[in-house]
Write a structure and sequence with these properties.
elongated; alpha+beta; 9 strands; two-stranded antiparallel ribbon
Length: 255
């Protein structure tokens, strides 16, 4: 019965978001007509356009730790209220999120139930849509960085023709991104936060000692050389993404 009710609510909330043109255009997760292939194509286009302009691209792969379990209910309800939902609808969502409990079964022993105060129900119909609502304002946190989102995975794109400019821009934007996650009670998965530099051999020659060290923490990186000729560049990029995510366990939606 609960799934039926959720489908009804989803069928009303989703068209409302579309009518408002609310969801970030480059959020490719949990949206009908959006997929990983489109995400990769868009990223390829940005990277190759930058190469044509003689620039090196910095790609920062970011993942949220326990994303669906970390959504703050008060923040989510405020976001729904700003979308113009009626008080009656907001009461329903408060009821939907409140008073949920969970227990843990270990070695045949079941713990006492504890009330859940964060997150959206796993495996629910509404959970993915509510997550997209929650994270939708992330792109507003940065000024010079474009981004592609796929659910809780993100790739942040910044390009430049000079070492110093790219280092400063990426470092500043990463701090802004981190601050946004903190403000919204989310935690970046440090182990999956990786940096990739993409460009031709000629352009990358001046980026050999490039480092990203926001807050004094060095981000591990990979340097990807792409042919300057148009032939085969998209294939080279896709192979590079797959190898990079396999080796570093960065955001997985390219695999």
């Amino acid at each position: 019965m609960s799934k039926v009710v959720e489908r009804v609510v989803h069928s009303q909330l989703n068209p409302h978001l579309h009518q408002l043109d609310f969801l970030y255009q480059h959020q490719y997760g949990f949206r009908r007509g959006h997929n990983t292939e489109q995400a990769i194509t868009q990223l390829n286009n940005w990277v190759l356009e930058s190469m044509d302009e003689g620039k090196v691209t910095g790609l920062l792969f970011v993942n949220i730790s326990k994303a669906f379990d970390s959504l703050n209910h008060k923040v989510l309800l405020r976001k729904l209220e700003r979308l113009g939902l009626s008080e009656r609808s907001l009461r329903w969502f408060r009821s939907y999120l409140a008073d949920r409990q969970q227990s843990v079964l270990i070695n045949g022993e079941l713990s006492e139930p504890h009330t859940i105060t964060l997150g959206v129900p796993q495996g629910s119909i509404l959970g993915p849509l509510l997550f997209n609502v929650y994270i939708n304002s992330l792109p507003n946190a940065v000024k010079k960085t474009q981004m592609i989102l796929y659910a809780d995975d993100g790739v942040f794109f910044c390009d430049s023709s000079t070492h110093q400019e790219l280092q400063v821009a990426l470092g500043r934007e990463f701090i802004e991104i981190t601050n946004w996650y903190t403000d919204y009670r989310l935690t970046i998965n440090v182990k999956k936060t990786k940096l990739m530099l993409v460009g031709s051999k000629r352009m990358l020659s001046s980026f050999e000692d490039f480092k990203l060290q926001p807050n004094g923490t060095n981000r591990s990186r990979a340097v990807i050389q792409i042919s300057e000729s148009n032939k085969g560049r998209k294939m080279e990029l896709e192979v590079a993404y797959q190898q990079f995510t396999k080796e570093t366990r960065a955001s997985p939606f390219f695999v």
